[in-house]
Structure formats: structure tokens, C-alpha cells
């Protein structure tokens, strides 16, 4: 499957930028990540996400949400809260979260 980026969206909307440092091949990490993706897609106002990780363990995920209420719904989701707790205990050496309002957005895709 060819990777696809989230195209430019109609502003305003919000980005939640999650950057992390973690080792490779962690127990249950991939399964939990897949479950979180399945859950967040059900949040009204969730618009999509883009992710990348380098071989050194630095990763970045940018999730796009229509409004702050959608971000709060995701933040307060009980399974997501459990996964975040496990991340702090087992998976991540460090992480940071940045939330920003997007006022302009555009994209390009070669045909």
C-alpha cells in the first residue's frame, strides 16, 4: 500500500503534534497503536493523521482535529488514557505534545 498524506484541509482546525523517543520492537506497542488509531477515527471532528519514525527511535505523529472539543474527547477517552499511562511506564523514554490552531492549509500531489 502506498503511503498517503492528509491533504490540505479547510481551516480553521487544530493539529496535535506528538513527538516521542522510544526503543524499537516493544511488547504490544504495535497492537496498542493500531487500537488507538481505530478508536480515534470514531471521534467526531477527527480529520486524520500523519506519522513518521526514524531508525534512532524519534517519532512524530500529527493528528488533525476540527475543534478543541474533539481533542478533549480523544484526550479523555478511557482506553487512550490507559495507553498513555502504559506509554509513560513502559514504552517512551520521553515525549512532548504541542497543540496548534491552523489558519492556512494547502497541499500538492503529483498525478
Strand order of the largest sheet: 2-3-1-4
Any idea how many domains? Answer: 1
SSE topology string: EHEEHHE
Ends apart, CA distance between termini: 17 Å
Number of helices: 3
Q: What is the overall silhouette?
A: globular
CATH-defined topology: Alpha-Beta Plaits
CATH class: Alpha Beta
The level of helicity is 25-40%
Corresponding CATH architecture: 2-Layer Sandwich
Strand tally is 4
Strand fraction: 25-35%
Structural class: alpha+beta
Q: If you average the pLDDT, what whole number results?
A: 93
InterPro entries: ABM_dom, Dimeric_a/b-barrel, Jasmonate_Hydroxylase-like
Pfam family, one: ABM
Domain ABM: 13-85
Keywords: Monooxygenase, Oxidoreductase
Structural description of this entry:
The structure is a single chain. This protein is α+β, with helices and mostly antiparallel strands. The protein has a single domain (about 15-100), classed as Alpha-Beta Plaits, CATH 3.30.70.100. About 30% of the residues lie in helices and about 30% in strands. It contains three helices and four strands. A four-stranded antiparallel beta sheet has the order 2-3-1-4. A hairpin with a 4-residue loop joins strand 2 and strand 3. Helix 1 runs antiparallel to helix 3 (about 80-90). The chain is globular, with a radius of gyration of 15 Å. The two termini are about 15 Å apart.
